[in-house]
Amino acid sequence: MRALVDHYRGQPNDGDDFGIIGRRQGELTQQLPSAMYWSLLRQLGILREPGSLADYCRRRVDAAKHHAARSALHEEGEVLEADTGPWAELPSGELDGFALSRDEAEWLRHRFLASEDRSDDRRSLVSWLLDPARDVWWTDVANAWEHPDRDRFPVATAEAMYLGRDLDAFIHSARITYNYLCALGRPDQSEKRDDLIAKYEAAMDDWRASIQAHLFTPTRLKELDTWARQALSAARAPAAAHQRWDLTNAFLRKWLAAVTGTSNVLTSPKAAAVLTERESWLKQSRARLGNPELLRAWAGDSGYFHLDYNWSIAMLICGDIHGHGKDDGLGTARRMRDEVA
Question: What does pTM read for this prediction?
Fold first, then answer.
């Protein structure tokens, strides 16, 4: 954490928007970054042991005690069995900051590619983007569905991608409406309140103007439901995950009925009731709608963002690998992108 903070210090945002866990709390941070990337280390075959980070630490302590005990008892000249350790063989060389060397980039590329055992039409976008056959790396692509090569994406993966795009475009109306209702319910008659109301009214106008190409229909919602249930079954998800999806799917059906049943979602009592019920179930005593005291402290823009389904994170990782794993690096990719543009 300290190394990351030092790395970004002095940059335009000074680390604020880089998602550095522990930047403010330091040693007092409760949820350490390693707890989040631990499963990815195992998925990529970098870590070759089961269990949590705590399990790993316990095993290392036990192994060290066992080794110390054997070292104290073994006879002179006896060769002890080496501990191969839980880690895959790492690239050679000393770590030097956060820039990847060519060997490190190619090693990481191989780890991503080797960790995936799927047919070509079901490859993940990360695997497809890191394929050595990719001779161009496109930069500044805001969303996966805006990628210049999207028509070449794996078929099943592209299907999920477009479902995600349409869902986000549709559900943005709920984000706008929720924030509008919060602004409307603020007990203060301030300029800030009026500005927020105007902001979300304008956002809804923009949404109406742009949504027609991606508006969810009952048929599209059924396609999403089918995909989600198949994905949960394939992942052997627990019953709780299926129950969460059932509740989410029920909310989407209600919201679709509310949106398509009115000419103005912001003033629709039915839409307000759907959001109030949803928030009450999710937040319980922390629900804002209908609670003037919580709304008084509300500053705006709650959950007011578009989903990119971790695309921005994937772009960072793949960009690091592409930038050092090929002779011409990102320079060629940028030139080709600019020429096309």
Answer: 0.80
